[in-house]
Amino acid sequence: MAKAFSAGSSQYITASSAPATAVPLTIACWFWCNDVTNVYNLVSLEDSSVNMDYFRLSARGNAGDVLSAQSHDGTTGVTANASGTYTSNTWHHACGVYASTTSRQAFLNGSGGTAETTSNIPSGIDSLNIGRLNWDGTPIQYLDGKVAEVGIWDVALTQGEITSLANGVSPQFIRPQSLAFYAPLVGNASPEQDLSGGISLTVSGATKSEHSRIIKPSAQILRFPPVAAGGGRIMGSLAGLGGLAGHGGIAGPHGGMAG
Amino acid sequence: MASNDSLCYVNVLSNEPPASNYATFDTRNSIPVLDFDDTTDESAEFGLFMPRHYDGGGITVTVGWMATTATTGTISLDVAFKSVSDDADDLDTKAYAAANNANPTTASVSGEVDYATITFTDGADMDSIAAGEYFRMKVLRDADGTTSTDNLVGDMELLFVEIKET
């Protein structure tokens, strides 16, 4: 399940810390817009004071229905648009790669637009917002739609990695050593949790809704060897979420356990 | 391999969702489940391996499921298999064999798990999956009740699937 946001009710999710503060970084999520008319903030890393510094992904229904990766240094904003357009009431994958102070690129469903190369250096990044932008201290661009599977990396992901994300692969599979933030936004928890960096996300009004298509790290794979004559024998292997791996066994004719 | 012994166990985190009309990930009391709509036919798919000690008989699939909220009603539940033989079956094109169906009634208390079983005879019914072969399994809620009555209101939550030799 994802989180659904109502713009009319000013719903959002926020955190008072930022998992990444400077380039290089990558922001990705699945998003669903209820219309292609308005501009919506999807995910943003921001300066929470009355400044306008940020890195963000926005769905801009007021600008040709494009997905944009934007940054703002407090004075000037720069925008990179993905190729293609998004539609309403459908899940799309959004990704913004902020490779350097002179390069940012947006990807819609894995398809990248032209990199924007103006020098732009946001500073004071200390918070995160999902579903709204804290513009100069005033929240704007509340989302009317849904967001799920938010990932933030402190590196610039490659085209191949972004393609994998757009194909439904969980952020947990993609360069996990650099995954600074991962919030699946399943929708049951409040606060929602960042499963990678441990940031607690305050949920303001956003509600549970149907999740995007996602391929999760596999959980248990159990094997059942044959029963030996005169006794039982069960062996198991466990490969778990988040890199857990182990072996457990129960062996022996009378249920003796060997781990 | 003796009759009634387990062959495979599937946790919902192993889902490899189809491109469309897929069951969606959810949790219930922090336990992973897959949600299946009550209006649109949705499915989940799993890649599995038939143990080499499988004796070639029929199999019984046990589907552990709950209703999100409902305490009455039935679901139309389909399970189908696709064998993938060595140098023979094209994953780009091969279709699933015909599904078998069950029509289980939800547990009487929301949160209780119903164990629904569907049997397959050996051979074509289970797409002739052989020991030592990779195969795929599809679990589908036939929400529009094509095969049997599906009148359960709200989502069906898939918890696990077990395959045993019948």
Question: Could you provide a short overview of the structure?
Answer:
The complex is a heterodimer of chains A (259) and B (166). With 259 residues, chain A is mostly beta strands.
Q: What value does the Rg of chain A take, in angstroms?
A: 21 Å
CATH second-level architecture of chain B: Sandwich
What is the helix content of chain B? Answer: under 10%
Major sheet summary line of chain B = 6 strands, antiparallel
Whole-number mean pLDDT of chain A: 87
In CATH, what is the class of chain B?
Mainly Beta
Strand elements of chain B, count:
10
- Head-to-tail CA distance between termini of chain B: 11 Å
Roughly what is the average pLDDT of chain B, rounded to an integer? 95
- Give, in order, the helices and strands of chain A: EEEEEEEEEEEEEEHEEEEEEEE
Percent of residues in helices of chain A: under 10%
| Rg of chain B, nearest Å | 15 Å
Form type of chain B: globular
Describe the oligomeric state of these chains in a short phrase.
Answer: heterodimer
- Secondary-structure class of chain B: mainly beta
- In whole angstroms, the N-to-C terminal distance of chain A is 36 Å
* Low-pLDDT regions of chain B: none
Give the overall silhouette of chain A. Answer: globular
The SSE order of chain B reads EEEEEEEEEE
Hey, roughly how much beta strand do the residues of chain B contain?
A: 35-45%
Structure notes:
The complex is a heterodimer of chains A (259) and B (166). Chain A has 1 helix and 22 strands. Chain A has one helix at residues 159-166; strands spanning 2-5, 12-15, 25-33, 39-46, 53-60, 66-73, 77-81, 92-100, 103-108, 111-112, 127-130, 133-135, 138-140, 145-153, 179-183, 192-193, 200-204, 207-209, 220-221, 234-239, 245-250, 257-258. In chain A, the strands form 4 sheets. In chain A, strands 1, 3, 8, 9, 10, 14, 15 and 18 form an 8-stranded antiparallel sheet that branches. An 8-stranded antiparallel sheet of chain A has the order 7-6-5-4-11-2-17-16, with no helix packed on it. The longest helix of chain A is centred in the middle third of the chain and has 8 residues, at 159-166. In chain B, β2 and β3 (31-36) form a beta hairpin. Chain B has a single domain, classed as Galactose-binding domain-like (Jelly Rolls). By secondary structure, chain B is mainly β. In chain B, the strands form 2 sheets. In chain B, strands 1, 2, 3, 5, 8 and 10 form a 6-stranded antiparallel sheet that branches. The relative contact order of chain B is 0.35. Chain B has strands at residues 6-11, 24-28, 31-36, 42-49, 59-67, 77-84, 100-102, 114-120, 134-141, 156-165. The interface between A and B is medium-sized, with 25 and 26 residues.
